[in-house]
Amino acid sequence: MTADGFTKARTMHFPRQVLAGHDVVGEIGKMSKDFELGGTALLVTGPTTGNLAAKVVSDTLADEGYTVHTIIIGEASKDNLVKVEEEAKEVGAAFLVGVGGGSKIDLAKLASGNMRMPFLSLPTSASHDGIASPRASIKDGGNSLSLNANVPLGIVADTALIVKAPYRLLASGCADVISNTTAILDWELAARLRSEFFSSSAANLAKYAAESIIDNAADIKPNLEDSVWVAIRPIIISGISMAVASSSRPTSGSEHMFSHVLDKTAPGKALHGEQCGVGSIMMMYLHGGDWGRIREALRLVGAPTNAEELGVSPEQIVDSLVHANEIRKDRYSILGDRGLTPDAAERLAKITGVI
Ligand SMILES: [Zn+2]
Q1: 162 burial via Cβ count (<10 Å: 0-12, 13-18, 19+)
Q2: Is there a single domain that holds both residue 224 and residue 99?
Q3: Separation of CA 223 and ligand 1 centre (Å)
Q4: CA 251 to centroid of ligand 1, rounded, Å
Q5: Is the pTM of the predicted complex or chain greater than 0.85?
Q6: Do residues 102 and 74 make contact, with C-beta atoms less than 8 angstroms apart?
Q7: How many A from CA of 67 to the centre of ligand 1?
């Protein structure tokens, strides 16, 4: 301890280069060279959408003199993570490249963390704010775990590629970022009531990302590369805010807890970001904030705003609200320790038009 009692210390891990824009996929070989990465790359990609992009990535890396191996893999599960790590060992990979949607990026992110090797992220869609974050989700049996992982050394977000993914994914990514608004309010509450560590810089970044999507919501539309351009930077910045906080706190509060319960009560119905967006409408009501503004922004980007659009029943919404506070007991939120009663949950969902 120093003479004045100061003992604080914190590490933040950031991406070193973020390249976003039209037709930048071919730059990944040059980026790898700039980073002075070693000779063999392992591409982690999926059987469908990632394939075309994986071919371009593979070619551009080969052009720069790299030996490239590719593993085609399914969902982000513990079994598949082991497969990726074994393949990386087998081919003597010096770095990983995640090419695809969230699950492929998450696998590359976790494997690179476990194996202490760098990884580059090339998202072919942007359905949540995990592209640039140091967190990853993985399935273990029936459970989904959120784990600390490696932050990508470099990110190549090609708007020409992402615009070809189903628009629903981008709208979900926008909704995930819009939901930062309530996550930040929960964090502020926890700081006031529980003296929880609070980072204004992380909160401001997360807030900026959300406001930027809300302000531009009317311009975010299907089949427009310009919309991807408008949305992708806030989605990346939202991920960076987690790196600044060294946790998902600035982007994940009560609305995420609601979504995590909905994952269990109505599995496979809606996307993560879609559920968090609807959760955010309701949590904003509980915070006494402008929940109509959240709902309108979601409507404008084309994300769901109610149970029907999520494809879930009113009972599943109410049930998920009632149990939301049980998800992360360590993470204090507007739901408090005891959560909502069934009556209050039903009233909340009705008032906000969710059911
Ligand atoms: Zn999220």
Answers
A1: buried
A2: no
A3: 23
A4: 7
A5: yes
A6: no
A7: 35
